[in-house]
Write a structure and sequence with these properties.
With about 120 residues, the protein is an alpha+beta fold. The chain has 3 helices and 5 strands; from the N terminus they run E-H-E-E-E-E-H-H. It is about 35% helix and about 45% strand. A 5-stranded antiparallel beta sheet has the order 1-5-4-3-2.
């Protein structure tokens, strides 16, 4: 059982046939939109930060839902064959959003962008 106030790590791996540079551009442009659309449009994203180290982007933002602002952090590692997205989902957000729905939404959206 997860302790109150704790977080859960979610990993999504999506294959791609695009170049590393093109995939990085797509990931950079779409990070917040991926999360917002996967949550059914009920989130507002604020205080977005992104930084690349080699082929791995570290990102962070606040996901605002109703009266709650929750910090989301993660990485997106790009290779010549896939994108691995690791996201830390705080327990407080998991109470509002189904992790399965969130994961499926992000994965589907990334697959569409990389097609």
């Amino acid at each position: 059982m997860t302790k109150p106030g704790s977080a859960h790590n979610m990993r999504i791996i999506i294959p791609t046939s695009k170049s590393v540079d093109e995939t990085k551009r797509i990931v950079e442009r779409s990070t917040e939109d991926l999360f917002r659309s996967a949550a059914g449009g009920i989130l507002q994203i604020t205080d977005s930060k992104k930084a690349w180290t080699g082929d791995t982007m570290t990102f962070g933002f606040n996901a605002c839902i109703a009266f709650l602002a929750v910090p989301i952090e993660g990485t997106a590692a790009v290779t010549g064959k896939d994108v691995t997205i690791d996201i830390v989902i705080p327990e407080s957000l998991r109470r509002f959003l189904s992790e399965d729905k969130l994961k499926a939404g992000i994965e589907g959206r990334v697959r569409g962008l990389l097609a």
